[in-house]
Design brief:
heterodimer; A: alpha/beta; TIM Barrel; 16 helices; globular; B: 543 residues; 15 helices; TGT (chain A)
Chain lengths: 396, 543
């Protein structure tokens, strides 16, 4: 994918720089880790530093010193995460300030304008997002409104003359109902020539994993081959690889960077919780084969245990490691896809990751739908449930 | 395993006689392959790491060549974890554990954090009290010696009895402090059964509190030739000083002791005379190190009046913690009027200031700041991580030798108000670099100029920049105090109860603003003799 600020190879994972920075790291650090695409958050940047400052600075790239590709989401997710303060109308989303009750309205036009001022290479439509688990007529209303808002976003984007500088993506909604998703796809595919890519939104909100993968597959099967497909809010390694197998090209999530700040390092055999006493005297690095600066430098688990949650330096060391882990998971996927060995990669990754406790049923089912059978030649059993791994104290 | 020896070579200078006891001097301290030019700096660490700086950022901060590591946080575990580090080649364990290669950094260790001013339970004849996350621990001289032999840092601070109980300290207390510290130094210098386990680079913290006679007595006990059993204990040395590689002066307990005696914040001349009292009888050709000096003004005076060689960067690192970007140089910038030592980047005047942290100086001033925030360099393409053979990070990039645009005050301002950690990373590496350039400027001036020029530049520095003092007569808070207050406000905006607090604050602010408007109206109307107080429909005064 070639954008105004350079090339990004797909499939890829995008770290999230919510408030114009990957927390704790400088752009030079992020760039040195081989990252070429990050995400910035429109709602937060509009609040601070604000559109005026960004305009004077010449855009977010110049303001924050990130020279490569950037994607901004539209503020749609904040409709859900800050929903206590939000009312949705046809015009837009009315956010009321929790401090003085003042309201600001975020319309599709306004969201696109702000994203123009930010200047990201990929911008997202404002969609009417509802919590994944919500049921009832509101879900259909949101889906239909998202299509209408897409039209308004396209209109604003084109009439501002930004069509060639920034790429607008549509976001498929419809909750967990395959019929609604189909209808949404129908509508949004009609606009194919006026959007640069498609995202699948409205997931990653606590729904059953077995439902999640089916929606992803349904959407990916219908979305055009010549447009990038972006699964929003996906970060767990197993989720990412299942999505890639189903046809996804890009994903973003705060998980790897957030969990780093909480003291958890991600590895190919599962996450390691460095706060636990069991790591206090472990003088090996997190992963001796990991190319990240933290591991290559030989920083031991014992040292990380000593500083984790006490020193920001620990947050930085783990953030660096986790970003590289995510990039490695996706990089090896790319390598395998080129070599034609992607199924083997899936088998070996999942064996390494879940071999000790069993493959989650939903992963087996999802990969079977694309003819990869995790259980073939494997003694590892299948287990029910979401399967998200965590490390617990031995003392528990 | 013994540490390699330290050499300290003072250069001759036209300005100052080579062998004078209390005069500025330029020198080179050499341990293994690491050369530290003095006057120079050592970086403070917390829990073994430089605060806010990951390893790659430490590497980007060229001014960090010496790091000081207080041992006490490792007392959480028994035995302390660094002593369990597996040996890696010839590297000292502490270097292997903390990942500071021994041929790139000087690593010194003291038991306690020299900047920790908290009250502590009293030390005794047999132990020193130290702080760790599990509370106060008692550390005996034997413990300390065994920890240091195991960790094997380049420089060990001998265990000393510095009281952190409430001052003033009685004559008796000071005598104990002197006697214990000398005894524990002897204990450290004692040759073990295997003579290679004698630590070789020992610095001693000069005790004696605020009493000049006590301080001189301690120094005399170092150079006094010992006899009998005492002599046997430290053989082949004849006096303790023969085993001492350098002298350390801790400003925190010194200031506390002086305040305890005088009841006032100490002035420079008191501090200087007390330090001189320690050095009076000691050989002048050993490095003199000061911890927790309170800013460049104090450092210049200590260099000029005493001949101090090394300062830790406590003050500069603390400025970074509270959002102040240092902006000064030596020789001083050529400016009109007096200015602050740095910028409180919380201040809203920086919202649209797109200059670098040391921007806005006239062209005659010393060069731009070369830190990784003011002159950021991208990692050269071959070193950028590639995660698949498709990754081509150098495509479409213009590779040049010039740095990327500097991080701006406006961006740092944004990061500080949004509570982003990267603000402190950028500030820390910037501030340490400013200190490094400060010392380079001092060394250059001393080496190549007459004493009167150095004196004149010190005067001009004092005239150009406002000193960071506790001066009670100052009506206005200085830049550091304003920054700390702003930092506190940003902290309060977060965490449990924040919405209630912020709502109260906003309500209070709008009430004050409304009152001002009303007052103005009343004043204007008052001139005509009639006051028109706006009333609501229910007859109440409207706000």
């Amino acid at each position: 994918m070639v954008l105004a600020h350079g090339e990004t190879v797909l499939p890829t994972f995008m770290p999230v720089a919510t408030q114009a920075a990957i927390k704790g790291l400088t752009p030079e650090q992020v760039e040195s880790l081989g990252i070429s695409l990050i995400l910035n958050n429109t709602y937060h940047l509009n609040l601070r530093p604000g559109v005026d400052v960004l305009k004077v600075a010449g855009g977010a790239h110049l303001f924050e010193g990130w020279r490569h590709n950037m994607l901004t989401d539209s503020g749609g997710f904040q409709l859900v995460s800050l929903s206590k303060f939000t009312t949705i109308t046809e015009e837009g989303a009315v956010f009321s300030s929790p401090f003085n009750g003042e309201s600001t309205i975020l319309t599709p036009e306004e969201s696109i304008s702000i994203q123009h001022a930010i200047g990201a290479d990929i911008i997202m439509q404002l969609d009417d997002v509802v919590p994944s688990l919500l049921q009832g007529p509101r879900v259909e209303e949101a889906m239909k409104r998202s299509i209408r808002w897409l039209d308004r976003c396209i209109q604003q984007h084109e009439s501002a003359g930004r069509k060639d500088a920034q790429n607008l993506f549509a976001i498929v909604q419809g909750g967990l109902d395959p019929n609604l998703r189909d209808k949404c796809l129908d509508g949004m595919l009609e606009r194919k020539d006026r959007v640069s890519g498609y995202a699948i939104g409205g997931l990653s909100g606590g729904e059953e994993k077995d439902v999640f993968w089916k929606i992803i597959k349904q959407c990916a099967d219908r979305l055009p081959e010549d447009r990038p497909r972006y699964a929003m809010g996906i970060g767990f390694a197993e989720d990412l690889l299942v999505c890639v197998a189903l046809g996804i090209d890009m994903a973003d999530c705060v998980f790897p960077t957030r969990t780093a700040r909480f003291g958890v390092a991600l590895t190919h055999t599962g996450p390691i919780n460095l706060k636990l006493g069991k790591h206090a005297k472990d003088f090996d690095p997190i992963d001796s084969t990991c190319p990240c600066p933290t591991c290559k430098d030989g920083t031991s688990r014992a040292l990380l245990h000593h500083i984790v949650t006490h020193e920001t330096t620990a947050a930085h060391a783990l953030t660096i490691h986790n970003i590289v882990f995510q990039a490695q998971v996706m990089g090896r996927a790319r390598e395998a896809i080129i070599a034609g060995t992607f199924p083997d990669y899936l088998l070996s990754f999942f064996a390494g990751y879940f071999g000790d406790r069993g493959y989650p049923e939903w992963c087996v089912a999802a990969l079977r739908s694309v003819n990869v059978d995790l259980l073939q030649n494997s003694k590892t059993p299948m287990v029910p449930g979401g399967g998200a791994k965590w490390e617990y104290s031995d003392a528990a | 395993m013994s540490s390699p020896s330290l050499s300290f070579e003072i250069s001759s200078s036209e300005a100052y006689p080579h062998d004078s006891r209390f005069a500025p001097r330029v020198a080179k301290l050499l341990i293994r392959k690491v050369a530290i030019d003095t006057p120079g700096l050592l970086a403070c660490t917390s829990r073994g790491v430089v605060p806010h700086l990951s390893r790659d950022n430490v590497i980007r901060t060229k001014g960090i060549r010496w790091i000081h590591v207080p041992f006490e946080t490792f007392l959480e575990h028994k035995p302390p974890v660094p002593t369990l580090q597996p040996q890696q080649g010839q590297s000292p364990k502490i270097n292997s554990f903390l990942r500071f290669p021994e041929d790139e950094y000087v690593l010194s260790m003291s038991l306690r954090d020299p900047a920790d001013r908290r009250e502590m339970p009293a030390n005794t004849n047999v132990y020193v009290t130290a702080n760790c996350i599990r509370g106060v621990k008692k550390v005996t001289p034997s413990d300390w010696r065994s920890y240091m032999i195991s960790c094997n840092p380049d420089i060990i601070f001998s265990l000393s009895d510095i009281p952190f109980t409430t001052p003033p300290y009685s004559q008796k207390r000071l005598t104990k402090s002197i006697e214990r510290s000398a005894l524990w130094l002897a204990h450290m210098l004692h040759s073990g059964p295997d003579s290679t386990s004698t630590p070789s680079n020992v610095f001693v913290q000069m005790v004696g509190g605020a009493s000049a006679p006590a301080r001189t007595t301690f120094a005399e006990s170092l150079v006094e030739v010992l006899h009998g059993k005492e002599a046997d204990a430290i053989q082949p040395r004849k006096c303790l000083d023969e085993g001492v590689a350098g002298y350390a002066f801790d400003m925190v307990p010194l200031r506390l002791a002086i305040e305890g005696v005088q009841g006032l914040s100490p002035n420079h001349s008191t501090i200087v005379s007390l330090i001189q009292a320690s050095l009076l009888v000691l050989p002048p050709n050993k490095p003199r190190l000061v911890t927790s000096a309170r800013g460049p003004h104090e450092m210049l005076l200590l260099i000029r009046e005493v001949g101090i060689d090394l300062f830790d960067t406590y003050w500069a690192q603390r400025a970074a913690n509270i959002g102040v970007a240092l902006d000064f140089s030596f020789p001083a910038h050529i400016v009109t009027g007096k200015r602050d030592l740095g910028h409180n980047l919380y201040d809203t005047k920086y919202t649209r200031d797109f200059t670098s942290m040391m921007g806005n100086h006239d062209k005659d001033s010393p060069g731009i700041c070369l830190c990784a925030a003011c002159s950021p360099y991208s990692t050269p393409s071959p070193e950028i991580l590639r995660h698949s053979s498709m990754d081509e990070p150098d495509k479409h990039r213009d590779s040049s030798d010039s740095p990327n645009p500097p991080y701006t005050k406006a961006f740092l301002h944004h990061l500080l108000h949004t509570h982003e950690m990267s603000a402190h990373s950028l500030l820390a590496l910037h501030n340490i670099t400013v200190m490094d350039a400060f010392f380079a400027g001092i060394r250059g001036l001393i080496s190549h100029n007459s004493a009167s020029i150095f004196e004149a530049e010190i005067r001009r520095f004092f005239e150009t920049y406002m000193e960071d003092t506790d001066d009670m007569s100052r009506m206005e808070p200085n830049v550091f105090e304003r920054a700390e207050k702003a930092w506190g406000e940003v902290e309060l905006l977060r965490g449990k109860g924040r919405i209630a607090r912020e709502t109260e604050r906003v309500k209070a602010e709008s009430a004050v603003a409304a009152n001002e408007v009303l007052k103005k109206e009343m004043e204007e109307k008052g001139a005509e003799g009639a006051v028109n107080v706006p009333l609501a429909s229910n007859g109440e005064v409207m706000m």
